[in-house]
Design goal:
- The complex is a heterodimer of chains A (about 130) and B (about 140).
- Chain A has about 130 residues and is mainly alpha-helical.
- Chain A contains four helices and two strands, in the order αβααβα.
- A two-stranded antiparallel ribbon of chain A has the order 1-2.
- Chain A is flat.
- The two termini of chain A are about 20 Å apart.
- Chain B is built from two helices and four strands.
- Helix content of chain B is about 45%, strand content about 20%.
- In chain B, α1 runs antiparallel to α2.
- The chains are: A mainly alpha (about 130), B alpha+beta (about 140).
């Protein structure tokens, strides 16, 4: 029998989406900070293809990258977005669009988990 | 700390920064005509505020904080008003270097940024409650 991987996939996507929401919140909060460069996370495809190999931390003094820290990257110039005179590269409209996107995706993945869970219960019940 | 909680924290820091900015703007507008009270005295000087990004060590999120509050060193407006207690011997009065239009524009911008942060808080809260709802609906 095939192992059921949907829950793992869904939780990975939920984690990626929450990290992205965190980054977008940071961009919006810093919309009027001079010299702030807008950040974004790497696309979900690259998380999926990530082999998961990491440096092992065998000592308390070793640094480890958290999932969140390893995914965040500064975005370069986006088409049509002007860098303001203060050196800030946040475009608030685009950030709002991103939060909308995150919300929709999250709803979808939570809905899928719910549906799948219901299906599993249906098979288990008498 | 999980990313959604820290997103709430980041947005809260944005709200705090923007509301301080609104406070500075209202101080400037309120004092737009505050002159000195002895002849030739300096009037109110316009205040400024600037923000800086601060990385939260625990979550790696970028909070916003107030870097410094300074004053605008540009020249005062000078007006002829011999009846004013702050008028010098030629009848000239120094008025604050506050431009109401600039302050209004700044206020609108702070207002918009505040709204954007509020929206983000709502959004993050929705995501959290959806996650909790996963436990509920299935009987």
């Amino acid at each position: 029998m095939q192992p059921i991987q949907l829950f793992e996939l869904a939780s990975r996507q939920a984690q990626w989406l929450t990290v992205r929401q965190n980054v977008v919140a940071g961009n919006i909060a810093n919309a009027s900070t001079p010299h702030y460069k807008a950040k974004d996370v790497k696309p979900f495809e690259s998380v999926l293809q990530d082999s998961g190999f990491q440096m092992a931390a065998t000592n308390k003094a070793h640094f480890t990258d958290s999932f969140a820290a390893s995914q965040v990257a500064e975005v370069g110039m986006v088409d049509g977005v002007q860098i303001q005179q203060s050196g800030n590269t946040v475009a608030i409209e685009q950030e709002m669009m991103k939060t909308g996107e995150i919300k929709r995706d999250y709803e979808l993945s939570a809905g899928l988990v719910k549906a799948f869970h219901r299906m599993m219960l249906m098979t288990v019940r008498k | 700390m999980d990313p959604l909680t820290s997103a709430l924290k980041v947005s809260a820091s944005g709200l705090q920064a923007e509301s301080t900015r609104l406070r500075v703007v209202s101080e400037n507008i309120a004092n737009a005509r505050s002159t000195g009270d002895v002849p030739g005295a300096d009037p109110y000087r316009r205040k400024t505020i600037s923000f800086a990004a601060e990385v939260d060590r625990a979550s790696g999120a970028s909070l916003v904080e107030i870097e410094r509050q300074g004053t605008d060193d540009s020249d005062f407006n000078i007006e002829f008003d011999p009846g004013n207690p702050a008028a010098d011997e030629k009848g000239m009065v120094k008025l604050p270097n506050v431009n109401i239009l600039v302050e209004m524009a700044d206020m609108r911008e702070a207002n918009r940024a505040y709204e954007a942060n509020l929206q983000t808080i709502k959004q993050s809260r929705d995501l959290i409650s959806q996650t909790i709802d996963l436990l509920r609906a299935s009987q």
